[in-house]
Amino acid sequence: MNEEMESLNKNEVWKLVELPKDEKPMTCKWVLRIKRNNVYKARLVARGFEQKPDIDYCETYAPVISMSSLRLVLAIIIQKNLEIYALDVKTAFLNGDLQETIYMEQPMGYNHNSGRVCKLLKSLYGLKQAPRQWFKRFTDFIIHLNFQQLNCEACIFVRRSKQSEIFIVLD
């Protein structure tokens, strides 16, 4: 849990504030699991089912690549004998900026008994808008690097030059 809290603090996911009188904080919980080799993983998740439409979130849609598009990209890579690299963005959802004002109770075990709550500044796992906010952040970043987003498949980005061709497939 300490490692997860370090990630949350590093990404400045929230700041502690006094709860405004007319607000009710949402709750959160720890999700714990054992991975391979008895490695323990803890993730703090917001209880998104408490969110109210048009108050706590507006848009939730985030595109997902279709299987036929993925097969097509793989066929192009094989046909052109290109190299494939796979990357994982650790704590990806924590990078999405929030537009809504959301208050959350402090996580169990890390409550400073200050009476303050977490004002979320970035997305947190469990929020309904978290996938969309991450997708928007990633798209803005990758387009800034001169990649073109395909019109027919929002999860595929391409950058071509005389020397190279780079495809990024967001999954």
TrEMBL record:
Pfam families linked to this entry: RVT_2 (PF07727)
SUPFAM superfamilies (alphabetical): DNA/RNA polymerases
Coiled-coil parts of chain: none
Domain called Reverse transcriptase Ty1/copia-type: residue spans: 11-169
GO biological process: DNA biosynthetic process
InterPro entries: DNA/RNA_pol_sf, RVT_2
Protein name (Swiss-Prot/TrEMBL): Retrovirus-related Pol polyprotein from transposon TNT 1-94
Source organism of the structure: Araneus ventricosus (Orbweaver spider)
